[in-house]
Structures are given as C-alpha cells and as structure tokens.
Amino acid sequence: MGLQMVIPFLSPTLKDVDVEVLAVSSSETCQLLHTLNEMLPHDVVSLRLAVSRNMGDQLETEIMDVVNIRSNLRVLRIPGCPMNAAMFIPNLRVLEAESDSAWNSNPGAILFQLSDKCPLIEDLRIIFPSDSILAVESIRPLFRCPQLRSLDLEYPGAVEMRDEYIREMGRAWRDLEALHIPSRRAHVSRAERPSGIPIASLVTFAQAFSPKLRKLAIHINTSDVPFPPDPPIRFTNLEFFSVGTSQLGYSEAEYRRVVWFLHSVLPLAINAIHSDLSTYDESRSIFKYKPHEDGRWSTSAAWDTLSEMFFDYRKVCPDREYS
Question: 76: which strand partners?
C-alpha cells in the first residue's frame, strides 16, 4: 500500500510512528521520507525509521529533516542512520543509531555531546563501524547519564577493561538493567587467544553493579580460570548472560573449570550460556536473542557443549546457592 493512500486514515493526534522500508530504491525511499515528513504531526514522541544501511547523503538528509522539526521526540530509533548532534533532543529517553565515520578516531567526543544534551537518556544502542577506535575511555562521558537503564554498544573490535573501570561503571549507572560491552567480534580465531575481559572479572561485575542488572553481554577470556569465590559471589537478579564470540580452548579440563567458576557467579535462574558466531547480524541487538529450532541457545559448538555441561552441573549441585 502506498503511503499516500494511508494519509487520509492518519489521526492528527498520532504519537507513535514505526516505519520499515524494504526492497525499494534510494530515490523511492527519499520520496517516501519526504512525504512522511509532510504528513506527520510535529508533536510525535516516538519514531522508528528502519531503512537500508547503505544510505547516501540525500537519504540521510531526508531522515534528518523528519527528525529536526520534532522536538518532542522521546524515542528515536534509526538503526541505519549515522548518529549526529542534531539527534540529541533534550527530552530524548531512547536512541538507536550508527556511529558516524567522522568520529572514528574519537568516539568519545560524540558521546560527550550526547551526554551533555541528553542527560535523561535511558536506553542507548550504538553500532560502531569496524574502522573506529573504541576504548573504555570513549565510554566515560556516558557516566554523566545516571538514568541509563540499557546500554548496548555494538563494535566488532576488542574493548579491554580493568576491574577498576568496571567498578566506576557500577557506581555511575545504578539503574542499569542491561549492559552490552562489545562481545561480538567479526574476525575471531583461536590464534587470537587470550583476549577479552578475564573471566575472573565477573566477580567484580557482580559486586559493582546494582541488583537491577538483569542482562549482561561481554567478551570474556577463559584462558586463566581462577578458583571460584568461596562463598559464592553471585549476581542478584541476572536473567541473561552472553559471551558473544568469546573463544574457548580445546580441553575438557578448561570447560570444567569454566563451568565450576560460572556456577559460583551466575544465579540459579540462569541455566544456559548464550553465544554467537563471527557471522552474527549486527543489526540485531544481542538482547533480542532467539534460540535455535532445536532449543539450543549457544550458536558455537564449543559453547553449546559447555552450556550443556553447565546445565547438567546445576542439576546435580542445586544446593550451592547463596550461603
């Protein structure tokens, strides 16, 4: 159905708009967005525009024309559009966009602008290009957004961090419910091990973050698994845990050490470890995970094996919960 045919049925009090453009040319998409800009009320509060990720300058301009005159927006999801300061509307609570390549060498600069203009942001998802340089210091400006409830950073490279920085994040974001510190890497091989956040740092995450944290996705390094904390130090209410494209070794002995350690830090409500292949779809948030047809939650064979071992271990050791 053409957009022009929909116009007569639109309410002038429309507040929530969700448009997904599939299988049309850039010129047709531009015309659609131009029409959309003319027909939508200026006081729309929620807007999602899903278009081709390979957009040209004209398409980006049309999208920003739609956004710029709607200062009441609280929810803005434009997953295929490069993020820019014009999107930073003061009352914005939700933002999803791609990081503009212009900020590749210093992503922290655009995040500083975001935190300065949108201090009330609660839900943030950013897709960073492969040639950007994302480090823990780049994320620090977001510490000025204390109301963050979900932070989803998609980046195909490595982001390493020490326990001290994990504690800083925990202090800054006391209301955080979902955290994705880039866990999915595009080109991961066995030769790249060890990499990722040491598995021992899961104890620091459990101690530093508030009980509100329910979802966590990180790239972990399992090459040096310590003895589990005794007594256990567990996340209070965690419901979802993903290791992204983290790599495991080849030995069953390592698997057993990992299972033993995870049992001591993950609450008993979790009975599966989620993972991804290096061919993951970055447009899909890691928090929107769907199981395979056969019910498995881990996409890699190694993590699927470990997840089964983890599930079996919890069945025979159900009493090892909080002391």
Answer: 47, 95
